[in-house]
Automatic annotation (TrEMBL):
Gene: hutH_1
PROSITE patterns on file: PAL_HISTIDASE
Record-level GO cellular component terms: cytoplasm
EC number(s) recorded for this UniProt protein: 4.3.1.3
Organism listed in the record: Streptomyces tubercidicus
UniProt pathway annotation: Amino-acid degradation; L-histidine degradation into L-glutamate; N-formimidoyl-L-glutamate from L-histidine: step 1/3
Modified residues (2,3-didehydroalanine (Ser)): S146
Protein name per the record: Histidine ammonia-lyase
MF (Gene Ontology): histidine ammonia-lyase activity; phenylalanine ammonia-lyase activity
Changes after translation: Contains an active site 4-methylidene-imidazol-5-one (MIO), which is formed autocatalytically by cyclization and dehydration of residues Cys-Ser-Gly.
Annotated keywords: Cytoplasm, Histidine metabolism, Lyase
Protein biosynthesis recorded as keyword: no
Organism taxonomic ancestry: Bacteria, Bacillati, Actinomycetota, Actinomycetes, Kitasatosporales
Leading EC class: lyase
Length: 514
């Protein structure tokens, strides 16, 4: 397989494939096995469609309207109408990478051979992805149950040559124009196909997969900034000894402690906590950094387990079973995904909170063990990083609000037929904001800690720290000195963390971190 293509079979996909398609513009190919399975399942649907017995999604209405039997001459209209009526999203456009992930994951389920669509539908959806055509999807419209209905409907609308979409050039225009420009024929949907395009957890799952990847990098980044803060505060690295973490055997905690120890190896800063104002112990925000970040890591591992299970799933209603039965089910309910999206928002909030406490300690001359107030060049004349911490605190406060779970809410819909929903899409949307906020919080700690280390001129930092200092300055992020316009420096620090440059700088010395 070419590194720039992803092949879909019948057994699901991987997180790496989702990210490759969503963010890396990888091409999607359909295996012969998948196309054969799709054709087999479609034959079962065609057989059922020819019988007089009502089958949900094939020859009935939808949701609370499923009591009506639909005659054969109205079924094309039925499938077209469900897409048009369900494409009822409102609000800002959803990010391109989210829509691509959503489409790819819906295609993954269609290719499983459990949905009953024709091979033509599967091939056309792959063609849209490969052409870089991204339907316009809106922020609001999913309750996370019966699938991410409105978001998926907007994608299905584009498949029909209706609605608006963004082309590979980033310009939004009518979907019909984009399909014609790329030689793609719009699909006329037949029995079951409109429903199959709408009924999945694909939006929330795609956002979960990308959040997991981003948080994995952020947990490592936060271990690094925690180590830099410990170093800048002349803390002790004895609390990172592996034997201490072995007696409380949470794997994430051990991984975070090991990361911090690698960053601090060879530091001339550690061990000076007894010099000017002797300390028996460092503050919790320093001493307990591995415990907090480690708990987040373990939460992330659980979220990845749920994501992997969902990536192997075929989520639709009804589903086509291998023996030809077409059965209604509740597999579209987003609870498993919604819960972990909320769990991750809680972990992100707590990690942001402890990072902000370390930053505040670096800036407070009464607790920073010899550093100038607010790390200012000339305190009083200069305010230093005083307001950078305000910005960080505002981000932390918002993180705490974002940690309020969405999945505990439910609003009945469809005339009480769909009387319990997951709100998983909402959980995913707020997690994306939380991940971005956390990245900014870690960036402010990085900015403060590197500045503080450079202000302790008589001591020699760890080799890994030196690599970070060099990389930060190479990125144009300035060091100690008089007051200046801070926003550009903070934005550069954010880009430095978000782009993985912090982790890369450390790993150039330490080797791979956990």
């Amino acid at each position: 397989m070419d590194m720039h293509s992803v092949v879909l079979g019948t057994s699901g996909t991987t997180a790496q494939d989702v990210i490759a398609v969503a963010r890396g513009e990888a091409r999607v190919e359909l295996s012969g096995e998948a196309l054969a399975a799709v054709a087999t399942a479609r034959a079962f649907i065609d057989e059922l469609a020819a019988k007089p017995d009502p089958v949900y999604g094939v020859s009935t209405g939808f949701g609370a309207l499923a009591v009506r039997h639909i005659s054969p001459e109205l079924r094309v209209q039925l499938q077209r109408n469900i897409v048009r009526s369900h494409a009822a999203g409102m609000g800002p456009r959803v990010e391109r990478e989210v829509v691509r992930a959503l489409m790819f994951l819906r295609l993954k389920t269609l290719a499983s051979g459990h949905t009953g669509v024709r091979p033509l539908v599967v091939e056309t959806m792959a063609a849209l992805l490969n052409a870089g055509i991204t339907p316009v999807v809106h922020e609001y419209g999913s309750l996370g149950c019966s699938g991410d209905l409105a978001p998926l409907s907007h994608c299905a609308l584009a498949l029909m040559g209706e609605g608006d979409a963004e082309g590979p050039d980033g310009v939004v225009r009518p979907a019909a124009e984009l399909l014609a420009a790329h030689g793609i024929e719009p699909v006329e949907l037949r029995e079951k196909e409109g429903l199959a395009l709408l009924n999945g957890t694909d939006g929330m799952l795609g956002m979960l997969v990308m959040a997991c990847a981003d948080l994995a990098r952020l947990f490592t980044s936060a271990d690094i900034t925690a180590a830099l803060s410990l170093e800048a505060l002349l803390g002790t690295d004895k609390v990172l000894a592996p034997e201490l973490h072995a007696i409380r055997p949470h794997p994430g905690q051990a991984a975070s402690a090991a990361n911090m120890a690698k960053v601090l190896a060879g530091s001339g800063f550690t061990g000076h906590h007894q010099d000017d104002a002797p300390r028996v112990q460092d503050a919790y925000s320093i001493r307990c950094a591995p415990q907090v970040a480690g708990a987040g890591r373990d939460t992330l591992d659980h979220a990845r387990l749920v994501a992997d299970r969902e990536l192997a799933a075929a989520v639709d209603n009804p589903v086509v079973l291998p023996d030809g039965r077409v059965e209604s089910n509740g597999n579209f309910h987003g609870a498993p995904v919604a819960y972990v999206l909320d769990f991750l928002a809680i972990a992100a909030a707590d990690l942001g909170s402890i990072a902000e406490r370390r930053t505040d300690r670096l800036l407070d001359k009464n607790r920073s063990h010899g550093l100038p107030a607010f790390l200012a060049g000339d305190p009083g004349v200069d305010s230093g990083l005083m307001i950078a911490q305000y910005t960080q605190a505002a981000l932390v406060s918002e993180l705490k609000r974002l940690a309020a779970p969405a999945s505990v809410d439910s609003i009945p819909s469809s005339a009480m037929q769909e009387d319990h929903v997951s709100m998983g899409w909402s959980a995913a949307r707020k997690l994306r904001t939380a991940v971005d906020n956390l990245t900014r919080i870690v960036a402010v700690e990085l900015y403060a800690a590197t500045r503080a280390i450079e202000m302790r001129e008589r001591l020699t930092p760890a080799p890994a720290t030196r690599a970070v200092l060099d990389a930060v300055r190479d990125a144009g992020i300035q060091g100690p000195g008089g007051d200046r316009f801070l926003a550009p420096d903070l934005e550069s620090a954010y880009a430095f963390v978000r782009g993985g440059k912090l982790v890369a700088a450390v790993e150039s010395v330490t080797g791979t971190l956990a």
